[in-house]
From TrEMBL:
Name the UniProt record assigns to this protein: UvrABC system protein A
Organism: Halalkalibaculum roseum
UniProt cross-references to InterPro entries, sorted A to Z: ABC_transporter-like_ATP-bd, ABC_transporter-like_CS, ATP_grasp_subdomain_1, P-loop_NTPase, UvrA, UvrA_DNA-bd, UvrA_inter
Compositionally biased residues, Polar residues: 1-16
Region (Disordered) location: 1-21
GO molecular function: ATP binding; ATP hydrolysis activity; DNA binding; nuclease activity; zinc ion binding
Coiled coil regions in record: none
Protein's GO biological process: nucleotide-excision repair
Family that this chain belongs to: Belongs to the ABC transporter superfamily. UvrA family.
Amino acid sequence: MAQKEAVTTQEKNGSPDTEERPIIVKGARVHNLKNIDVEIPRNKMTVITGVSGSGKSSLAFDTIYAEGQRRYVESLSSYARQFLERMDKPDVDFMQGISPAMAIQQKTTSTNPRSTVGTTTEIYDYMRLLYARIGHTISPKSGREVGKDTTKTVIERLFDEYEEGTKFYILFPIPQHEEKKVKDELKVLKEKGFTRLLKLDNEEMLDMTTDDVDPSDIDTDDYRVLVDRLAVKTDEDTRGRIAGSLETAFQEGHGRCSLKIRNGEELPFSERFEMDGIEFEEPSPQMFSFNNPYGACDTCEGFGQVSGIDEDLVIPDPEKTIRDGAIAPFSGQKFSKNLRDLIKVAARYSLPIDTPYSDLSKEVKKILWEGKDEYVGLRPFFEDIKSQSYKVHMRVFYSRYRGYSRCPDCEGYRVRKDALYVKVNDKHIGEVGEMTIGHAREFFENLELTEFEKEVADQVLYEIRKRLKYLDEVGLEYLTLNRLANTLSGGESQRISLANSLGSSLIGSLYVLDEPTIGLHPRDNDRLINILKSLRDIGNTVLVVEHDPEMIKAADNIIDIGPFAGVHGGEVNFTGTYEKLLDSKTLTGKYLSGRKEIPVPEKRRKGNDKAITLEGATEHNLKSLKVDFPLGKLICVTGVSGSGKSTLVHDTLYAGIQKRMGTYNDKVGRHKALSGLNNIDSVEMVDQSPIGRSSRSNPATYTKAFDGIRDLFANTRQSKIMGYEPGHFSFNVPGGRCENCQGEGIQKIEMQFMADIELTCEECGGKRYRKDVLQVKYRGKNIHDVLEMSVSEALEFFVDETSITNRLQPMEDVGLGYLKLGQSATTLSGGEAQRVKLAKFLSKSAGDHTLYFFDEPTTGLHFEDIAKLLDSFNELVNNGHTVIIIEHNLDVIKCADHIIDIGPEGGFAGGQIVGEGTPEEIMEIEKSYTGKYLKDVL
């Protein structure tokens, strides 16, 4: 009835169904947008594409998402709203149909050292609940399940295990109170009506009512108080009498009693949660939380690691056997006695000392570290060394092996020890946390539970399985649940956020995504596209900023912003379907239809016949790899997500070279040897980390072009009259800058329970400088005007000032001409930051042989920009350098001189070399996913 009324009201009002009403944006002028009008269909997937810097993010994030967020904040408390008047509204004439908006950006989700994949996705929280509800506590002594006994369970056991007529006693232990002697205890028992004690070994009965019982002769361990003597009979009267006696025994024995079979064993029972003389904690969700003082391991405080001895330094090569010297501290003359002791113990217990260390079982490794018989063990050995730290040589020896090791108490599982006694399907929560998402999904799908457990855990299991399914589907099956969130790449954390959004099953929302295909191999793109489609199908509007051809093809609607970057962009080039886009005159349309393309090089470079060789790389999932990196070439390292590319290139090769050059103090990935370093002079990692930590850092200061600009302003006639130095034109030091915002142009307001809000400085109006300094002009522009120029504009403006143009030209060459000189480094995307660094290296003159590392440099790049980027790489290689790139983009891969393909899968199933050689050779390899996709483009 109510529904019918609602319909008629809507008809009366004549309002169209909100589901059909599109999102309308009219007159958007944020950043470089040129007063554009856009219509985005609701409950559809729209892709916004266009060259880098054309204004895609300005439309998607700074206009549509910002307004959605602003309208949400408007509904909050008056405390939050007092800042709203100062919170800029996007510069737009009119917006309609905006739903509550959610942005999924490429920012690493967490800097919290305790945060893991399991906690960020809430899977671990549901696991804690599951273990608290249906976990079985297993005694570490006997391996039996701990439980509470009741009168009912005792009777059931008695009737199940013993036949009719079996005679038995019902007993309880003599109570012991600290302040009372045995004599007093016996007196109290007599007063309560208990008159007999049973001696356990010979079933001799002592009558406490006679005077010949000497309390000093009674050992409380050997005697029990008798409650009743009975025989097993199934009739109701006997059952009732047994139950009554048991209840008395439990009550008087403070929760403990026992049955003694005539001439047989004693069966102890307890109403407490105990077994084998140990009292256990009853499972609760807090008990499994390493973020909670109650559940965290006391030794490592929930981090899983303690500072001590680093296993990787003690066993530098896990492929070696113990006999061959796997244990580094025992391989010298001084401590070789320990190795001899270990070999003796190994012979005695048949320990496999001729097996590589990495293949040894947990039990054998435990003996190595904890010791056995005359062999002291590595931990006690280092404790002894530490105790002699007053001797200099012992201090030096100890420091050689110091680092972080797994916490010995919780074994690195982070939770209190008794939480690890609780198991579900024979696995404790720590072991499940070490599983990859793929394995965990299998484990939870195939749980064997009783009907009662199924009923209790039904909803919790549904939530866990749903989240694991989404994580698996977005291509993250290789991540372990306990992987730290701050070690994830931008693409990985973005896909985790995406899976979280799906897990929360919101509908009627607007999702704005920033290049979700980053870090994904073409093989995994289809899975991601299916996920976004399912987000759309449950009733959400999905808006994606993207360059990937597959994603563009899958969209219901495409908006192409351009035609070029910066001031030459900001217009709507095209809006419509994929088929129409192919026929359009836009750059995107030309590349997608094949009318324009990035050419395959006519011939591959031969290199300089020298190479860097890495041997025995075993970090994370690498399977003892030996890899040659030929110098003087453009090398691409490819493979599906999680196959081990970053581990090989970042953690092992780059870190290893840096360590040898003495400029690296962090941990290096495990490997046996690294040779050929005499063939290079220096090494540079051009990754996606920000170009400056402070918001004051910008492209002008980073490329040092700002030095030339400040000198120009200081040399003007006006500056000379006022006595200004170049320092007056710096916003980093006091002098000419606005002191209210200290040259930032903005002020941060800290909001309780919400993200901080940045507001324009009221004193300088965001111009960063004092008014008198802004009056100094060069060719009609003040220093603020110059910082507002894009790189392309600045090149025209300073055309005859080579000290400035030489620094800025490389930025134009790598496709960053649209960036403003004064744009804060913290607002640059990862891909932009990486290309700013590339520009800095391009501006250096050719000389020494440098080895350059790039990590997915095509992030955020349109086809047109990738062509420019490849020209820059070729320029570096032609100048005699070597470039190594981790990449998934086929346009870059097809232009490489040499490919190293790792895989075949992610996680445990990866870490092998699938193929090495030219793109033409890789595409012939059957099991190479990269080769399969290369066939299409070559």
